[in-house]
Description:
By secondary structure, the protein is an alpha+beta fold. It is built from twelve helices and 18 strands. It has two domains: 3-194 and 365-452, 3-Layer(aba) Sandwich (Aminopeptidase), CATH 3.40.630.10; 196-250 and 296-363, Alpha-Beta Plaits. The radius of gyration is 23 Å and the shape is globular. Bound molecules: ligand BES and zinc ion.
Amino acid sequence: MTHIDQYLKDNADRFEEQLCDFLRIPSISADPAHKPDMLQAAQWVESQLRHMDLTTEIIPTAGHPLVYAESPEVPGAPTVLVYGHYDVQPVEPLELWITPPFEPARRDGNLVARGATDDKGQVLTHILGAQSVLAADGRLPVRLKYLIEGEEEVGSASLETFLATNAARVACDCVVISDGCKFSREIPAINYGLRGIAYFEIRVQGPNRDLHSGSFGGSVTNPATTLARILAAIVDRRGKVLIPGFYDDVLPLSERERRQFAALPFDEAQYFADIGVTGATGEEGYTTLERRWARPTFDVCGIWGGYQGEGAKTVLPAKAGAKFSFRLVPNQSPAKIAAALKQWLPDVTPPGVTVELIEFHGAPGVIVPLDSPYVEAAARAVEHAFGRSPVYSREGGSIPIVTTFYETLKADVLLLGWGQDDDNTHSPNEKFSLVDFHRGIKASARLLQELGQIHKG
Ligand code: BES
Ligand code: ZN
């Protein structure tokens, strides 16, 4: 057994306990009530890094603090930036959690808690991986930098601001990110693409108060009906978004990439069975993987208005609203999509209501190149830890800052997800496989050793 393997084995229980400690901190970035927890989570991350051969800093921002750490230069070896996030998504609906979201529980080989896979468990693999190399080899084989933020789940605005003036400080040869999924339970993946996002809230206001739906119905524009009409007008039955200009900049799928997607061992029936549906609709002319990874989409994320209580209440609601997003593909600009939406809204707004649009975060989609020695090193490390060589795939989710890493820092980006599609990310009973947690640590340690072999002049 190698030194590293021995170390991983001897420390496996401690690693799990550390993850549990991290998961107990309710660091929900979207909820201002959790501001103190955000600082606590940042401090927790910083304290893990401080015990290694790193200088660390908690950097305050207009939003949630950044954790930054770096080790000394290793002559001739690359500089590697580990990026991740300590913030988590809200936990509602709380009643659907089998155990409370911030009391990590072991079930069926998983650790169940908000943030288990997204992203605390995955971030921690890259802290413990480096710790393991340091303990076993007595030194870090590369210069390491860590940048762990608290606003990924709300759009990464403060990190964006920080990088605008601190690019030199975080300069690196490659960025390592584990904030995604394997291809399937047994098949690891290296991702080379992420979708972008443009997120909005719409508020439809009608009369100055709720009205009797018998006395007034038919003579007054109904805000809830209007909202439904507007949302339904955004996309047609063939899954095409109808906002003028929406597809103008879309990077089309090449025939080669379509063939590559089609050759992946994707079990569509299982994909649908897992989520309890028997079929689906989507953009006509595209396969499920193409729809998920490489085509832009529209989704309503939340919708409200009118009476929601027991029984029936005959009321014409004064207002209604919804939250919705477009997932974008490379070349589409979130700002352009927002402008197109704003311009189009008056066309679908009838007399008798006013429509207000609130813009939330936006991020462009990204594709990163695979022909790099860093990707080859990552493939070897993943194979070493997961026992199978990775497939190359894209992801439907978004990590807003990746475009900046790639375009501004000009760094290679390694997207190595250790999660699974059925991890309940952003929903109740989020989980992370403990086997994959340990494999992730092992892969991270091996990756650093592999990257240390790459000679930088
Ligand atoms: N870990 C996800 C991104 C992700 C999801 C990658 C699925 C691969 C597969 C990340 O934490 C996330 O949820 N990002 C948000 C960003 C948004 C709030 C700007 C997302 O995609 O909704
Ligand atoms: Zn997330």
